[in-house]
């Protein structure tokens, strides 16, 4: 079989402490295109990887406020402008009675935006991954932790990446190959 | 699709490398995924068949109502709301325990919730689906209902009445259904990825792969995921409290004596959590036994749930007392009559069932022995389910004695009423059994994160 293109290097770890220090090492080595894969969120890994805080909360609150405001605006326009009907002697714009729906629309918009931004930011919806092509995905979703260095990073070379991961105390470093027919 | 030759054989890590909790993590995946990966057993098929019969009864009665009209129900004047809204409030209430477990207990960092959260959330969604059927069928023309329920432009140019609690209810319940669904699905993503990667069959891999949206366990994804999950919990908490408060407004905002009270919102929320926990216990006791998950959903979990049932039982007991007291203390003749009639009138028997099942029987849960014995707690949680249905029935039967004695009328349910009630359980259990068969019933990723040795021991940022 012809030699296939190496698209990355994965180090598989079994100890969360080693994973954290490995992530710190890779971060400090100046890697840009790399990632950690874990079966569950590991505390402190965001810092160890040097990730910026997630912007999701800002999206949530903005969308919530827009939803609530649009809700109140809609009820005002429908009840007081477009087709006013006097009900129970109340003012056309009886805002107190509009509070429950305003609140619900705040929550609805905020939740939809949370879901949407989470899917967008996590790049969900893309299936392809060298981890699938090389049968290591099962490990990192079950019980092991992977540090993946992407060959697209300018520092990357097969030897250097292997040395870096081995240097972090990893005993199971594997090259990741491109799927057949593409390399 | 051949794997590269170097990598397809040695899957086991080098000997001596295992220092983390690897075996326990693997075991959890194996246990939770086992029911998904085996052929359904005879018992599952029998249970499913029974549930399907129930669902069929529901469908028949639903279609019958649409075809022949609401006249097939026992509703009359003055009892314009019969079993329909009783069932609606009952099922919405069932859902609330799921959100309480998944959102409020998450914010309170209650670790024990992880093993039951997924199942309870699934119950929430199915209960809300079942609940929504009742207002739909009561409209008589569900395909036109959108025009009455939502502010849609129509030929008359008139809009829905935003001052009506019934409209608040529409928005609250549909928001609740959508948000619960998104919250549940977000929690499922990593577990679906596990099911995908364990799958042997191509179709199976494809289906779970699509459902998992290509989840890869990347920490760059976990970072946003965790934040989103926290936000969902934060949004669901006030939402769930608002939903049953709004349901109670359906009654409390009216001017019917016995309904027009300020205690209704907290009383309904407590009752919802009470009945919801009882239903979670009812189902999960069977599920854990049947799927051999007793070591994951332990007797300790059931003990804690029983304590919550006990606490909320005291809350609804307090509400029953307070209602009676305020009716007397208000000095309003109509109020006093409404409550005397509730307790001693033609539905006094229902009131007695309500008090026995919701207030008296749960007191047995003060005893640790009873809280920790499946055999002894099971009748109690079943009784709570029954009692909470009767609570809503009692409240609605207040209508049978309205302001004008000449129009007083008892409510006599018809076979369609009974069919919809029994059938709704069939529909609910059909959905629940399908869930148990096809989706991971325990939140695996979240449980893993809380296992011994799963997190770094410190010395690092954290």
The CATH class name of the largest domain in chain A reads: Alpha Beta
Q: Approximately how much helix is present in the residues of chain A?
A: 40-55%
**C-alpha Rg of chain A (nearest Å):** 25 Å
Q: What's the CATH topology name of chain B?
A: Formate dehydrogenase/DMSO reductase fold
Q: Distance N terminus to C terminus of chain B?
A: 41 Å
Count of folded domains of chain A? 2
By oligomeric state, this entry counts as heterodimer
The CATH superfamily of chain B is identified as Formate dehydrogenase/DMSO reductase domain
Mean model confidence by pLDDT of chain B: 87
Low-confidence stretches of chain A: none
| Sequence of strands across the biggest β-sheet of chain A | 2-3-1-4
Mean pLDDT of chain A: 87
Largest sheet of chain B, if any? Answer: none
Number of helices of chain A: 7
Largest interface: A-B, 87 and 83 residues
Describe what is shown at a glance.
The complex is a heterodimer of chains A (183) and B (462). Chain A has 7 helices and 4 strands; from the N terminus they run E-H-E-H-H-H-H-H-E-H-E.
Question: Could you please describe the fold and organization of this structure?
Answer:
The complex is a heterodimer of chains A (183) and B (462). By secondary structure, chain A is α+β, with helices and mostly antiparallel strands. Chain A has two domains: 6-53 and 130-177, Alpha-Beta Plaits, CATH 3.30.70; 56-121, no CATH class. Chain A contains seven helices and four strands, in the order E-H-E-H-H-H-H-H-E-H-E. Chain A has helices at 16-28, 45-49, 56-82, 95-121, 130-133, 137-142, 158-167, and strands at 6-13, 34-37, 145-150, 173-177. A four-stranded antiparallel β-sheet of chain A has the order 2-3-1-4. The model of chain A has no long low-confidence stretch (mean pLDDT 87). With 462 residues, chain B is mainly alpha-helical. Chain B has a single domain (51-449), classed as Formate dehydrogenase/DMSO reductase fold. Helix content of chain B is 69%, strand content 0%. Chain B is built from 16 helices and no strands. The two termini of chain B are 41 Å apart. The chains are: A alpha+beta (183), B mainly alpha (462). Chains A and B meet through helix 1, strand 2, helix 2, helix 3 and helix 4 of A and helix 1, helix 6, helix 8 and helix 16 of B.
